[in-house]
Amino acid sequence: MNNVRRMTILALLSAMSFLLMFALEFPLPGFPPYLKYDPSDVCGLLAAFSFGPAAGFLVELVKSILFFLSGKSADGIVGATAALVAGGTLVVAAGKTYAMGKRSLILSLLVGTVTMTVIMVTANYFIFLPLWGLPTHQITMPLVIAMTGFNLVKGVITSILTIIIYQSLRTKIALQGAENRV
Question: Which of 53, 144, 166, 179 has the fewest Cβ atoms nearer than 10 Å?
């Protein structure tokens, strides 16, 4: 696959990722309303599995920048950065695991979900919640449990969607890009 085609596919995945985040962001039942889910990370995962983890991260970066510039991010630059850290961690961890000898898609997504959960709970505790005005000494165990549960549920939903879509697109995109990993 030539570079123009690969860049075109990555641009399309970035645009689709932004549109999914822009149009389908919603709170998950049972979690605080400020913890919102959107299926946009599926596009980053498709890029990572098809072209390598750097390509997946690039999709996440473009999506987060576009979302911030759109003005829809209620949390501004902090929210867009948190989304980039979450999606970027999921995509890079899953993409690297998958690239290491073509490991199982499910194992790769499990590694990505667990890594994202650990990183996001830590980043929320020490960085993002304090930037939103909540000092670390006010962060309670129920909040940490809610953040952990949310990130696990987010990872599972995103993983299921990715498996369904990747399996159906595998011969069209993934195998074409396998020899051209970023």
Answer: 179
> What are the C-alpha distances in Å from 2 to residues 8, 54, 59, 85, 180?
10, 17, 18, 30, 8
CATH code: domain of residue 82: 1.10.1760.20
Q: pLDDT per residue over 78-90, tens digit each?
A: 888 999 999 999 9
CA 127 to each of CA 15, 81, 118, 142, 144: distance values in angstroms, whole numbers, following the listed order: 28, 11, 14, 18, 14
Beta strands in 17-122 (DSSP E): 26-27, 36-37
- How many domains, in total, are found in the chain? 1
More confident residue, 158 or 176: 158
Distance between CA 155 and CA 172 in Å, rounded?
A: 25
Per-position DSSP letters for 138-152, written without gaps between them: G--HHHHHHHHHHHH
Q: What is the pLDDT of residues 11-34, one digit of tens each?
A: 999 999 999 999 998 999 998 888
Quick check: pTM over 0.85? yes
Residue range of the domain that includes 79:
3-180
Region for residue 30 given its phi and psi (left: phi exceeds 0; alpha: psi -120 to 50; beta: otherwise): left
